[in-house]
Amino acid sequence: MKKFFQSKWFYAILSLIFTFALFFYVHDGKNDMGLTNSTSSSTNTTQMAANKSKDLSVPLQLNVNSDKYFVIGYPEKVNVQLSGPSALVTTTANTQNFKVYADLGNLGPGEHTVKLQQQGLNSDIHSKIKPSKIHVNIQPRRTVKFPVKATYDKKNIASGYKVGKASSDVSSAKVTGPIDQINRIDSVVAKISLKPNTKSDVKQDAVIEALDKKGKTINVIITPSTSAVDLPVSAGDNKRVPVKVNLNNKQDDKTYDVKCDPSDVLLLGDKDAISGINSVNADVDVSKMSGKNTKTVSLDTGNSKVNGLDPSTVKVQVDVKDK
């Protein structure tokens, strides 16, 4: 037996056993790796094949001869639903490297219903445009020159103040739009924006607008779109007079120290009417006063021909002390 283990036959058989063992070990490893690679490849394929949908808001473009025609009635944006492979839809939604358009190139003046189209989408992506059709009104493009007049709201001018002639650095403007809108224009104005109770000159850039007979704004293109305007505002006939504080219901056992801020005001109105007024009264009831008091008192001349006072109220301070 000892001779067998030391013989060449024993070592040959042992080598053969190791060879078979190594073969089966390597074969099983390849099968496992193949299974893993197959699973990974299957997963990637599934991910690429997965579909998704996404809604986008996309600007609507018009293919039209804009030098000849003006188009009205179309939406600025439309909704587009994209569906297809997830990766392609995501990339397209992020880049938006396609366009939605209405082809008006072969259409003339009038009202039309036009089907919307897309251009630039990958062939694997399906798109659905909402709305699928639009109604447009194509009209001949017209440009007309109109005089520009500066306007303002007189209600915002302070009482008693007068307004000079408004001036503008734009005397006329070119107005472009569809012919039916151009025909509606009654005037083109540079609207001056005034704060309530305006008492001083106004200088600003005013927006130029086209208005119809009812004063409503018409949607057209105006060149230039703004104008530098100057509106002089000043007091009319005026006279500065002192404020006379009258303390009513004083008590005999008390003293009253009075201060008025401001001590004089500007009287505005008819020249003949204000010439006979030498002061303005501020009446204060002190019957319930003690110590230091401050009251805001409205001024009134009682003369209907006086347009206003600037300011129309004063602050009266009354310090009441015992005698």
From TrEMBL:
<dbReference type="InterPro" id="IPR053154">
    <property type="entry name" value="c-di-AMP_regulator"/>
</dbReference>
<protein>
    <submittedName>
        <fullName>Putative secreted protein</fullName>
    </submittedName>
</protein>
<dbReference type="Pfam" id="PF07949">
    <property type="entry name" value="YbbR"/>
</dbReference>
<feature type="transmembrane region" description="Helical">
    <location>
        <begin position="9"/>
        <end position="27"/>
    </location>
</feature>
<dbReference type="InterPro" id="IPR012505">
    <property type="entry name" value="YbbR"/>
</dbReference>
<keyword id="KW-1133">Transmembrane helix</keyword>
<keyword id="KW-0472">Membrane</keyword>
<keyword id="KW-0812">Transmembrane</keyword>
